[in-house]
Amino acid sequence: MEDFEPAFPLERNPVTHRRHRSEVFWQITLPSVIGIVLIAALAFLATQTTSFQVGVWADISIIWLIMPVMMITLVSLVIMIASIYLSAQLIRILPFYSRRVQEWFSMLAIQVSRIDNIIIEPVLRVHGFKASIGMLGRNIRRK
């Protein structure tokens, strides 16, 4: 199969290409360079400290390492306290409403049973009548 060659040359749009290059510089290159320079500066400062300053930096590092765990634990604690409080409130009001729901379903069951009896009564009468006629026929044949 022959290679497909477009009918028109594939050239970049100079305006959009220039804008793309500018966005790449400001959104990718510059922040990356600034981050690398900051990390290098902090590494240089960390190597130039005295033994007293090392202890201070260690304490600061531990604080920064423990802080996210403390925040997550605090959020978990708040959620747990809220769920305990809401569960206690629910347990206090639930029996009243569940009894009302149970009574409503009992009344509904009675109404459904009444409607069911009304609907099924004609069918039962027909079947009963057919059974009576069948029994009468069997009794006549035996005699």
The coarse overall form would be elongated
The oligomeric state of the chains shown is single chain
* C-alpha end-to-end distance: 98 Å
Question: Total strand count, please?
Answer: 0
In sequence order, what are the helices and strands, one letter per element?
HH
Arithmetic mean of pLDDT? 87
Class by alpha and beta content:
mainly alpha
What summary fits the major beta sheet? none
Structural features, described:
The chain is mainly alpha-helical and 143 residues long. It has a domain at 49-142. The chain contains two helices and no strands. It has helices at 14-47, 51-142. It is elongated. The relative contact order is 0.02.
In short:
The chain is mainly alpha-helical and 143 residues long. It is built from 2 helices and no strands.
What are the key terms here?
mainly alpha; elongated; 0% strand
Secondary structure topology:
Layout lengths: L13 H34 L3 H92 L1
